[in-house]
Amino acid sequence: MKTAKFGLIGKNISYSFSKKYFTNKFKDLGLQNYEYDNYDFDTIAALEFFLLKKVKELKGFNITIPYKESVIPLLNSLSKTAKKVGSVNTVKVLQNGQLKGYNTDVYGFKKSVNPLLKKHHKKVLILGTGGASKAVAYVFKKKGLKVKFVSRSKKGKPYLTYNQLTKQIIKKFTIIVNCTPLGTFPDVEKCPNIPYQYITKKHILFDLIYNPSETLFLRKGKNQGAQIQNGSKMLVFQAEKAWKLWNEKS
Fold it and tell me: What pLDDT score was predicted for residue 99?
């Protein structure tokens, strides 16, 4: 029987959640001819070459940092959500060999953040401006919340910079989401440079990082009385959504 291959595409992804998760899933489902591997690429050019030469061997794959946006021109089509978000983290290889991009981060984040939200949560600070941050912003904007991105530099865009985060801003923006890699294992003593002393019990601090389970960012928030949540639930939700998409008939 032909092996059904899936995988994760990214850069420096040996730590990946996805390979272990799907390998265990296939085992639990008794899918002996299914496998999930990591495909690590240093450049977008190397990724493009792989898609041209090898992608037909796969049924579907996930995309992670730093290719969630740069992969889009290499795909044949996008789902409505992926098109609106401008970021892709799941790709299905269609029966004709064409590649369709989806964003299951939106689904995963929405499912994991919804139970935390209360009426006073109206404004959101998103730390980082990469592909994952776009999915997070999309979820909150659909809910009618005001979103502001925080970046190390403005890059000609209406971002806040970290040194602009005043007590007044932190007080108003009671949801703060870390979409940067700061604090990921093994660099566990790093965290985004925000004025944590102004965080209160009215705040939610959500970190997309899942390893470690409690980052320094989350720990500092917890010490101020904030609700905290890491990225582990989001990862499971988005992975299950990807699995469903890969198994739907085209």
Answer: 96
